[in-house]
Structure formats: C-alpha cells, structure tokens
Design brief:
Blueprint: H1 2-20, E1 23-26, E2 29-32, E3 35-43, E4 51-59, E5 62-71, H2 78-90, E6 97-103, H3 108-113, H4 138-149, E7 156-161, E8 167-169, E9 172-176, H5 181-194, E10 198-202, H6 215-220, E11 226-230, H7 239-255, E12 270-279, E13 284-288, E14 295-296, E15 301-306, E16 312-317, E17 322-328, E18 332-333, E19 338-346
Parallel strand pairs: 5-6, 5-7, 7-11, 9-10, 10-12
Antiparallel strand pairs: 1-2, 3-4, 4-6, 8-17, 9-11, 12-19, 13-15, 13-18, 14-17, 15-16, 17-19
Helix pairs in contact: 2-7, 5-7
Length: 349
C-alpha cells in the first residue's frame, strides 16, 4: 500500500510539474503547453499615437524556466531583430522545457522611424527609462509594459543589442556582477554560453527597482539573472551577424536545459573591464581613426572632431590602453553623445 501511495504521490508531482507552465499570458496573448503564438502588446494612445510591440510566446510541452529575449530597444539595431526571427523558427515547442518570450521589436517608433538611440516621438532613449510608467511618454509606457508583462514573468533575461546605425562595434557581452555569488554564477554561465568571445565585466552600481533605467538592470533588481548582448554593427543585417544572435540564443537554451543536446563549450574569451564611454565635447563632424575591436595605447587617437567648416575642435584620445568596443562611424556628432567605448583587457579572469 505504501508503494502505491508513493507512486501516486510521484505521479502527482510529475503532473504538477507538467502543468506548471500550462498557460502563460503576455498582453492578452495566451499560449498553452506545446504551442507557439504570436501577437502584439498594444500600447495605449495617449495623444502620441501609441505603439504595438510584436511578441512571440513559445510554450514547451515540459516544465522549465522562462527565458525572456528582448530586441529592438534601439530601432536601428537590426541584427538581433532578424536573429530572433530565425531563433523563433528553430525552437520546437515539442522539444522545449519551459517558456520563451520573445520581444521582437521593443521600440517600434524608433524602428519604423529608422532612428538611432532616441524615439522620434518623445526624444527618449528607451534603455534609460525603465521600469517605465503606465501614464508616461510612449517610451515609458512601452518600458512599463515590457517590465510588467515580460520581465517580471521571466526567470532569465537577455537584452539583445548591436552597433546602432552609427556604431562600428566588435561583438561583446555586458556581464553584470551583482555581488550575489549564486546570481553571478548564473549570469557568467549565460554569458559564456551565448558564445561571443569578448565579455565586458560590468560592475555598474546596482540601481533601485523603481529607477532601474536599463533593461538588464530591471531584471537584476527583480532577482532575475540578466545580461546584455551586443552583436552587430552600423545597422547591418549581414548573415554572420544575424547568425551570431540566433546561435547564441539556441546555445543558451541548451545551457539552461530548456532544449535537449549539449551546449557548445565556451570558446577562448577576452575579458574586458573598467569600460569608459568617451563623449563628444561639442557638436560637429567626427572622423574615426580606429574601428571596433582595435587595441589602443593610452592617449591613442580615436578620432578627430571638426566644425562644419572643417576647422579642428578636438582630437579624441583613449583614456588608457585597452580595446575599442565601438566607435562612431558616421560624421554627425552632438555634444555629450558617445564617440567611442574603450575597455581594459583583464588577465586571468
């Protein structure tokens, strides 16, 4: 009799596990076990036109974690957008354990407006307004919807970026370090599994949950292992850049045991730290003298800034010896905007 009770108890536990991910809802879009659905989170028009956020939910047949993938926070960063389309088609719900929520294009006003950094509607950088506001600008309302309907349902989060339309970027990952050993181990595992061979050790100060600013920080402040990928350059949709994004997602799913099969082992990694974003001292016309991925000496020339008549304004130099993560590759330059990002190479990580 005890054996029978034990078998019944085990069966109940298994059934409960299988039913735990039985249905998930995002923006009124519902998916049940073994189902793939697509649709939109509708952002109410508050006199600014509102927006729509295209979302896919892939619900596995078996229980498992929920992974949220967000692309298109900056509308000119195309490689992750196309990469997530490819990954979504590769994920078989019948083989999946858990749930994948894909935000295909977070910032539709910027995407359709072909703008870098900022929304053409409200002038906001959406990756600076999290967790957003239900009654704020359109960027804030989108961020609020993604926070409450996507991020807060996730167990893991990846914010997927690339070099914006003006950035020559060498692919890398921002790997946050929170000081929580368990969470940091999970984030490091995610970063290595994604497979970009340059990883920036991100020791930014932890921000409060109600003023998290960044997509990944919004996850971190809610106890969710999170990271940001950067795979693409100057708005390119070159096949190898799209592939980096799609393959990174698939290997991450294997790493998280959400898909069967062995994850590809980590490749040799260049660890980077103490990153510095160098900003422009004035409006003008910029000419880069380096490319993303170049190494530079301390005070090495990153580029030259001139006025609209070609007269010199400033020579932009590296603050220390290191690697150029990205540099602005197009001429227009506004005061205070990024010119380049440089990181120190960290030995022995």
């Amino acid at each position: 009799m005890n054996s029978l009770y034990r078998m019944i108890a085990i069966a109940a536990l298994v059934l409960g596990a299988l039913q735990a991910n039985a249905q998930i809802e995002v923006g009124g879009l519902k998916a049940v076990a073994g189902e793939r659905v697509t649709g939109f989170i509708d952002i109410t028009d508050n006199g600014d036109g509102g927006s729509r956020v295209p979302v896919s939910i892939i619900q596995g047949r078996s229980n498992g974690p929920t992974l949220a993938l967000v692309a298109g926070t900056h509308g000119y960063e195309y490689a992750p957008v196309i990469g997530l389309q490819k990954a979504a088609r590769l994920i078989d719900p019948a083989m999946l354990s858990g749930t994948v929520i894909i935000v295909h294009v977070a910032n539709m006003p910027s995407f359709l407006g072909r703008t870098i950094y900022y929304s053409p509607v409200d002038g906001e950088n959406m990756n600076r307004v999290y967790p957003g506001k239900a009654d704020g600008t359109v960027s804030e309302r989108i961020a609020h919807a993604i926070t409450t309907q996507v991020i807060e349902q996730a167990d893991y989060l990846v914010d997927m970026h690339s070099g914006d339309g003006n950035e020559d970027l060498r692919p890398y990952i921002y790997m946050p370090v929170t000081g929580n050993a368990e969470m940091d181990a999970k984030i490091k595992g995610m970063a290595l599994a994604f497979g970009l061979d340059h990883i920036v050790i991100d020791r930014r100060e932890n921000l409060p949950a109600d003023a998290s600013r960044f997509t990944d920080m919004t996850g971190l402040t809610r106890g969710i292992p999170s990271m940001t990928t950067e795979a693409g350059r100057v708005g390119s949709t070159a096949p190898e850049l799209v592939r980096k994004n799609a393959e990174g997602v698939m290997n991450l799913l294997r790493h998280l045991k959400m898909l069967p099969g062995n994850e590809k082992p980590p490749q040799p990694t260049v660890w980077l730290g103490d990153f510095t974003v160098i900003t422009s001292p004035a409006d003008g016309i910029f000419a880069a003298r380096v490319k993303g991925g170049y190494t530079v000496a301390k005070d090495g020339v990153l580029g030259e800034l001139v006025d609209y008549f070609g007269e010199p304004i400033a020579t932009i130099r590296a603050p220390y010896a290191g690697m150029v993560n990205y540099v602005i590759a197009t001429p227009p330059m506004r005061k205070g905007e990024p010119v380049a990002m440089v990181s120190k190479i960290v030995e022995g990580e």
